[in-house]
Amino acid sequence: MSLNQAIRILIVEDHAGLATNLFEFFDERRYILDFAADGLTALHLVATNDYDVIILDVMLPGLSGFEICQRIRRDMHCSTPVIVMTSKDQLQDKEEGFSVGADDYLVKPFNLRELQLRVDALYRRKAGFSRVPHIRAPGICFDPGTFVVSTDDGERLELSGTAARIFEGLITAYPGVVSYAEIQSTVWGEREVDMNTLRTHVYSLRKLLQDSFHYPMIKTMHGRGYRLLAQNKSD
Predict the structure, then answer these.
(1) Domains identified in the chain and CATH numbers
(2) Where in the chain is the DNA-binding region found (predicted)?
């Protein structure tokens, strides 16, 4: 994937005015946009097209944006980065969004330039991952191109973008500790993120790994950060 290619975006938004603003803002020479006003249309488009980024409203007719994101990850096994945009700004709302597989969470109203910057950042990270070789720890393998974590037992889990970046940092540092600052820098760059958001992401990732591989794969090192535990090791 070349960083000079047009970025293909699916916008899922039932508010016609906002959808129009997005279409007018994103330069057609650099971005190719598809549009869905409801969940079923969005799922059909995701199933039949390859997108670089999905911009997903939460309050939609029929299926909510959270339900759509969950189906994209769980049922369709799609790792395309998802930006959730919503007026729901409580921590529990953000936790729900990240837990169903969202990579970014943007609260309305927002500046369209900020949305563009986030789209570009997710695209760059997705493009860069495809060139990175597999990373291994005892009993565990991570493929940065597909975001798939696998074990020597043959179990597999496909992560979403933000979870994949956190996991890549952990497995790359194994058996060392990844500090809070290192996670923030790796995942969000220079964008300031509060500690609750970081912990929510790590909590969601830890639960996904626990449910899939049946052992606590991430250990909290209080006051320092986190470290990956290799398979069949708990120290």
Answers:
(1) 7-129 (3.40.50.2300), 135-228 (1.10.10.10)
(2) 132-230
In a 10 Å sphere around its CB, with 0-12 CB exposed, 13-18 middle and 19+ buried, how is residue 31 labelled?
Answer: buried
Amino acid in position 212: S
Residue-level pLDDT, tens digit, the chain, 235 residues: 344 468 899 999 998 888 888 888 887 778 889 999 999 999 999 999 989 999 999 999 888 999 999 999 988 888 899 999 988 888 888 888 898 999 999 888 888 888 998 898 888 877 654 445 788 999 999 987 778 899 888 888 988 778 888 999 999 999 999 999 888 887 777 677 788 889 999 999 999 999 999 888 999 998 899 999 987 655 5
Look at residues 113, 104, 120, 106 and name the one whose alpha carbon lies nearest to residue 187. Answer: 104
- Asked whether the CA dihedral 2, 83, 142, 43 is positive or negative, the reply is negative
CA distance 133 to 86: 36
pTM score over 0.85: no
The rounded distance, in Å, linking the Cα atoms of 235 and 229 is 7
The strand ranges marked E within 13-62 are 31-36, 53-57
The residue whose two tokens read 């290619």 is 5
Question: For the chain, where are the E strands, in sequence order?
Answer: 7-12, 31-36, 53-57, 82-86, 104-107, 135-137, 140-143, 148-151, 156-158, 178-179, 218-221, 225-228
